[in-house]
Amino acid sequence: MLFLIVAVSTALTSAQPKMNPATFQEEVRRLERAWLDAYEKHDVASMTEIVADDFTITFPDGSIQNKTQIVDSLKRGGASAMKFRTENVRSRAYGDTVVLIGLVVSEWTQDGKPMTDRSRYTDTYVRRNGKWQVVASHLSAAPK
Length: 144
Hints:
Layout: H1 2-15, H2 21-41, H3 44-50, E1 51-58, E2 64-66, H4 67-76, E3 83-94, E4 97-110, E5 113-128, E6 131-141
Helix pairs in contact: 2-3
């Protein structure tokens, strides 16, 4: 009986795909760029895929938004065109979770003047059913 349990356990373990933290981190970094692109392009379909249903983002002023609010704001449009880039991004993989920490720079035009905002961020991505999604984001004001 013990032999059967060991054999089944070994077979199940070897059948599972090997986790590669470096690959996961690269996948999530690409997804992070796609997420920023979805914001820039008001791409509701991409936003819906990338952002988990239970997502929450916390802004520097303490306000929060969920997925529904973000998608609704993209559908409404009207906001000035914003561009985003990230800097000094570090990533860590913990099994099916990847955390990105870095700086996000937002650029837009207001009343004909170029505007820039810099925020520190922590984004948490989880792989569910083989698909990565962002589940949480936290922004803090960064020095100018």
